[in-house]
Amino acid sequence: MTDGPHVVAIAGSLRAESKSRRSLEHALDAAAAGGATTELLDLREFDLPMVDPDEDTPPDAEALKEAVRGADAILLGTPVYHGSYASPLKTALDYCGFDEFEDKTVGLLAVAGGSFPITALDHLRSVCRSLNAWVIPHQAAVPKAGSAFEDREFVDDGLAKRVRTLGRRAVQYANIEPDPDSFESEANVGAVDR
Ligand SMILES: Cc1cc2nc3c(=O)[nH]c(=O)nc-3n(C[C@H](O)[C@H](O)[C@H](O)COP(=O)(O)O)c2cc1C
């Protein structure tokens, strides 16, 4: 046990050899080295059908929400799918709401097969702001994922540093004083848990 913050990461790819999951592991290692307890939520282990507001929340979604609520800081990692973030992460986020994200520190990471992972990060930042989360300015982008790793380690030291810095910042800013509500959150009438 440590007195440090609890950092929870959600890995948004279902691929067995997911590079975004691997990247998050590096960020969580850095968070742990900074004194945090860490947990990686692997969406392959949750049975999450697409959200249907007419249905009761499935048990695995309740488990996911509970794990996210227990976090002081959250890391979201996603592959880039068609210039945005991936559907498994979208579904996980749609089960969550203000109860899970409001005033939480969130760090973002995206991994692309190509050379431009930035749009997925922009889109995730908007989602987090609509839930009144505090999004860390530093974000980690891993381009050309196919050649980014060798033996589970980043080939490029600069990239490794960017990813590890995200984990460190999650610890550093886990308990930051809440900002006033964002404009987008005030207009977010869908997330009814508030
Ligand atoms: C449906 C789909 C859409 C994709 N769209 C893009 C894209 O728009 N840009 C890109 O650079 N890579 C794209 N990719 C490639 C993934 O970003 C890349 O394979 C990444 O490593 C996947 O992350 P993962 O290893 O965590 O699953 C796409 C892959 C899939 C399966």
Description:
- Strand 5, helix 5 and strand 6 form a beta-alpha-beta unit.
- The chain has 7 helices and 9 strands; from the N terminus they run E-H-E-H-E-E-H-H-E-H-E-E-E-E-H-H.
- The protein has helices at residues 19-33, 59-69, 87-95, 98-101, 118-130, 157-172, 183-186; strands at 6-11, 37-42, 73-81, 84-85, 105-111, 134-135, 140-142, 149-150, 153-154.
- The protein has a single domain (6-180), classed as Flavodoxin domain (Rossmann fold).
- 41% of the residues are buried.
- The chain is an alpha/beta fold and 194 residues long.
- 37% of the residues lie in helices and 20% in strands.
- Helix 1 crosses helix 6.
- Strands 1, 2, 3, 4, 5, 6 and 7 form a 7-stranded mixed beta sheet that branches.
- It is globular.
- Bound molecules: flavin mononucleotide.
- The site of flavin mononucleotide has 16 residues, from helix 1 and strand 3.
Secondary-structure topology with pairs:
Layout: E1 6-11, H1 19-33, E2 37-42, H2 59-69, E3 73-81, E4 84-85, H3 87-95, H4 98-101, E5 105-111, H5 118-130, E6 134-135, E7 140-142, E8 149-150, E9 153-154, H6 157-172, H7 183-186
Parallel strand pairs: 1-2, 1-3, 3-5, 5-6, 5-7
Antiparallel strand pairs: 3-4, 8-9
Helix pairs in contact: 1-6
Bound molecules: flavin mononucleotide.
Task: Please supply descriptive tags for the structure shown above.
Rossmann fold, binds flavin mononucleotide, seven-stranded mixed β-sheet, alpha/beta, 37% helix
The best one-word shape is globular
Radius of gyration (CA) equals 16 Å
Q: What is the tally of beta strands?
A: 9
Bound molecules: flavin mononucleotide
CATH domain class: Alpha Beta
For this structure, what is the CATH homologous superfamily?
Flavodoxin domain
H/E element string?
EHEHEEHHEHEEEEHH
How many alpha or pi helices? 7
Question: Which fold name is given in CATH as the topology?
Answer: Rossmann fold
How far the N terminus sits from the C terminus, by CA atoms, comes to 31 Å
What class, by secondary structure content?
alpha/beta
Most strands sheet: 7 strands, mixed
Helix content: 25-40%
What's the domain count?
1
Report strand %. Answer: 15-25%
Q: Calculate the mean pLDDT score and round it.
A: 95
Quaternary state of the chains: single chain
